[in-house]
Write a sequence for this structure.
């Protein structure tokens, strides 16, 4: 019998792992903001005290998104199966059959 560390992650565990969803969204929005940062006008930079906010926030979102995706890959979510319960274990102690 395989231990939980040897059990491969199931499709259900990947489906319910929010780190993949959060990481994916951060990566998508990070890419969009980074691209927008390359086309930021000097007027928009002047409003932000000379800082290209789209570029820097896009790069930061990319880093956070990649971190979440690497974290989900390095430590996959393990959903342990329900143990099989013997019917004798459900009976009160006074009614259990003796072995």
């Amino acid at each position: 019998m395989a231990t939980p560390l040897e059990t491969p992650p199931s499709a259900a565990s990947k489906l319910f792992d929010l780190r993949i969803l959060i990481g994916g969204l951060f990566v998508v929005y990070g890419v969009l903001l980074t691209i927008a940062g390359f086309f930021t006008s000097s007027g928009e930079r002047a409003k932000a005290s000379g800082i290209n906010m789209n570029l820097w926030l896009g790069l930061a979102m990319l880093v956070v998104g990649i971190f979440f995706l690497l974290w989900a890959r390095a430590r996959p979510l393990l959903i342990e199966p329900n143990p099989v319960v013997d019917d004798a274990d459900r009976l009160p102690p006074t009614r259990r059959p003796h072995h």
Remarks:
- DSSP finds five helices and no strands in the chain.
